[in-house]
């Protein structure tokens, strides 16, 4: 077993004053104990011990890239107990369907397997290629094209063997403003003061979404951002993070994507798109889908982006609740300037 004193898990845990995910999925924050649990899992399910730890991070769950002693390189995803087996099996079926269709999706090699109180999934590690800047028009177009292809592959879900689409329906109840924050470090209730203007915009957007249902129901990637794409040349080689699959209306999914497709921390570039870039993304998606959104679909798309921006703004506010001079490259700046009209 590799030396846990110097591995990527130890390096990750030393970055944070408090670890929120590890106590839930591993029952510990001790890197040595985490290493032993991962190694035991690989021996039991993949029939090989771990030779090296390649990367590690945690957010909603824990993700670790490893090289096994038998030479395979895999990604272990350790999910919180709130992720049901039914949900993870649905993701597993969709990934296989996409891979078989030639789509640049990561390839699962193991159905969800029990890991402590939750489950773990395993994919082939594919780190070929490089990260690119989605502010470049040709890169933006390639993302819109892949998005349109994904929609065409998933609009008829009867083609996906073993899938029960309702399992991936994560739409919020009409009276709920925000999903549960993706990390416990973001406390919306404790930082509600000063965020009333954000909540008001979100409430208006949620009302629009609750009262309108134009568009097709299909599967989409709800964290559709360039940080999950690797390129070889100008072609997309692989797209990550398929745990973000969800069932929703097409204009809802496109609205979220248009607001966040530029998001990356791998490159020193603006996180969010300009209004012109967001509108261009929608036009390019429409061109690749060979269809125009109707007026009702455009209304839903705009409301979806606003709700998505409000969630991001509440994340920002929870970190800097007293900040009033918002950075230009932030959700709060966009909402303060455009209100509900960023996609109009």
Describe this structure in words.
The protein has 344 residues and is of the alpha+beta class. It is 39% helix and 16% strand. The chain has a 5-stranded antiparallel beta sheet. Strands 6-9 form a two-stranded antiparallel ribbon. The chain is globular and about 55 Å long.
So, CATH architecture of the largest domain? Answer: Alpha-Beta Complex
CA radius of gyration is 20 Å
Enumerate the spans where pLDDT stays under 50 for 5 or more consecutive residues.
Answer: none
> What topology, given as strand order, has the largest sheet?
1-2-3-5-4
What keywords describe this structure?
344 residues; Phosphorylase Kinase, domain 1; Aminoglycoside 3'-phosphotransferase, Chain: A, domain 2; 2 domains; two-stranded antiparallel sheet; 10 helices
What is the element layout, followed by pairings?
Elements: H1 8-14, H2 22-25, H3 31-45, E1 50-58, E2 62-68, E3 73-78, H4 85-100, E4 108-115, E5 118-124, H5 137-154, H6 196-211, E6 217-221, E7 229-232, E8 235-239, E9 245-249, H7 250-260, H8 275-289, H9 295-319, H10 331-338
Quick recap:
With 344 residues, the chain is of the alpha+beta class.
